[in-house]
Design goal:
The chain is α+β, with helices and mostly antiparallel strands. The protein has a single domain (9-69), classed as Metal Transport, Frataxin, Chain A (2-Layer Sandwich). Helix content is 35%, strand content 28%. The protein is built from 3 helices and 3 strands. The model has no long low-confidence stretch (mean pLDDT 94).
Length: 80
């Protein structure tokens, strides 16, 4: 069974950049990413921590799955 990778906030930001998310603001240690698809704003907030807790990384994964196909994301978030 695949395990969730240990990811940092900047790792997740790079992954989401592959799906056209761009940084629009930062407040403290949290970065707001956004992309516009069919005139719909898709916004995510990512903590810029050196290593995210597994629960936080999993919650971000579930949030991103609202916008990006889960099977495409799995290779970036989970081990094989």
């Amino acid at each position: 069974m695949p395990k969730l990778k240990r990811l940092s906030g900047s790792d997740i930001i790079k992954i989401l950049g592959l799906f056209d998310f761009v940084q629009v603001s930062q407040k403290g240690s949290h970065v707001k990413l956004r992309r516009i698809v069919n005139k719909e704003n898709q916004t995510l907030t990512i903590p810029l921590h050196k290593e995210l807790d597994k629960g936080t990384a999993n919650a971000i994964f579930r949030q991103v799955c609202r916008y990006v196909d889960e099977s495409t994301l799995r290779e970036h978030f989970f081990t094989k």
